User: What shape does this take?
Amino acid sequence: MDALTDLGVKKMSWAWQYMPILNELHQKYKDEKPFAGCKMVVCCHLEAKTANLARLFRDTGAEVWTTGSNPLSTQDEIVAALVNHEKMVVHAKHTEDNVAFRKNLYKALELKPNLILDDGGDLSAIVHTERKDYLEGLKGISEETTTGVVRLRALERDGLLKVPVIAANNAQMKYLFDNRYGTGQSVWDGIMRTTNLTICGKVVVVAGYGWCGKGVAGKARGLGARVIVTEIDPIKALEALMDGFDVMPMDEAAPLGDIFVTVTGNIDVVSKRHFDLLKDGAVLTNAGHFDVEIAVAALEAYARNTWEAKPNIKGYRLPNGKSVFVIGSGRLVNIAAADGHPIEIMDGSFGVQYLSMLYLWKNRDKLEPKLFDTPAEIDRELAALKLKSLRKSIDTLTEEQTRYMNSW
Assistant: This one.
């Protein structure tokens, strides 16, 4: 076994021992093989946890091809482990080249999948626009992220959605834990290991106060930062204020922040008009799915010169003489500069994905071409499995309590 493959196998093995939900699902379905006859493409950030999910699908009957869901998020050692050790088909490599990244998406679709597990909506968009021939035989899609759900909802709204889609991101066992605790920890892991800077005492600007933003802001406060939240939604802004954070527009926050984390899903959150306002030494990072929230191309064009300040950190000298820094080219900082969400968090999220895909497969040809939420019973089953793995039990209602709760 070569060194790269060996490293990937070790990473997968390490993750697997901390994934009790996927272990339980493997034990339950490995003999039944409920995905027998299913051709599946898993498009996700290709690292150890995702590899274990792909292997679970394979071990329970599916023919699985995998590809990456974002430039810079594929770990080549994991690709090597899947190809050389697990003998699986993978079309992905660690790259910043968007053309090469897209080519691998098209290659993965050559499987002509019955099911797609998507992260960000790229494959879903391709099969509904550029390559509609792949819709033939496609029975369903399960989407992992807020960004992907937004794109799929737009397809549905415009009458273009042709297959049933489960918004796995909307499952409580996903967004309450993955988006909040997963993003919160992994973002600061990426920032701290890349910059080697303190967080305590700094002013952190978090753009967006959805579930991911809540996690990022909460962890920043826990690390000793003073946190400013920028928002466009008055309810979320009020919630951030009530949670103890300062709230203001980005134009006002730009001169104050030491570290910026964008997590909105929208474009130009930090744009050209903000560059000259930034502090000398300000660090810009993004935790949204696409590299559009920080206007990196505009910053590149505006800067006097650029340089590699440190591996994975690019420096930009502005015309006013100040320097600002961007981590991971403005891509997902928690995966471009770290290992993504914690293992135990993704165990829950991938449990949602596994059972959502199983629901789609069992109900193929029965569901309308629309966007569905993950069935509530899947959430409850996974929460119970997680509590069991933590050796925790909860109360149950007596018959009298049940009758009382059901009475008017």
